[in-house]
Structure formats: structure tokens, C-alpha cells
Amino acid sequence: MPNPNDLILIGILLLALVTVESGGYFLTRVVRGHAPANGLQTSFFRAGHAHAAVLLVLSIAILAVISYAALDGFWMQLARTGVPIAAILMPAGFFLSVLGRDPERPNRLIVLLWLGVVSLTAALITAGVGLIAGGVAAL
């Protein structure tokens, strides 16, 4: 059973999916030519939108089971919050790095994408190892 803090975070993440919906509406405007965007922007907007949705849902799935992990302290916090942090950083990197009129390449804010990748990887490894250890301990 998720603890109360995890339940609150799951609720917040579910509400955050509403912002992904509005981003989807924006994306339909882009692909129909109703919002100006070049090829790079269109590709990055699609990637940002997809990563946001997938990472929010993955965050909810992890939070639903992470209380069974053999983790505590820093490691438990990393397992709980690393994917939600990545769900913010990675899409932000995709969207913010191509703002402006007709960019030819991503700007320096692409670093947000790579910070998100680090957060995602660290959280997935930590949660995975912790859940395996928790399962083995429960045998």
C-alpha cells in the first residue's frame, strides 16, 4: 500500500497529465499548420509531449509499488522522485531548447534533457534494485 505522501504525489501527477492533454492540443495545432513551427521544433515538440506522458504514467506505476522496496533514506527518495523529476526536466529540455523563430539547432537549454536522463536512469536503477531486494527479502 502506498504511503500518504506517495498518494499525494500520485494525485499531483494525475493532475499534471491534464497539462499534457493541453500540450497535445497545441501539438495538433502545430501539425495542422495552425501554429508556426519548423521541422526541428515539430520533432522536439512531439518528443517532449510523448516523454511527458510516458514518464508521468511511469512515475505513478513506481509510486504504487515502491513502498515494498528494500530502500530507505536518500535511496528511497531517489526511487520515489527521480522519475517525476525526469518527467519535468526532459520535456522542458525538448520544448525550451527550440523556442524562437525558426531555430536550426537546439539551444543550451538542451542540458535539461540530459539532466532528466541522469535522474531517470538513477531512479530506475535504484527502484529496480530496491524492489528486487525487497522481493527476495519477502521470500
Automatic annotation (TrEMBL):
The chain crosses the membrane at residues 50-71, 78-99, 111-138. This is Uncharacterized protein. It comes from Agromyces ramosus. Keywords: Membrane, Transmembrane, Transmembrane helix. It comes from the Bacteria.
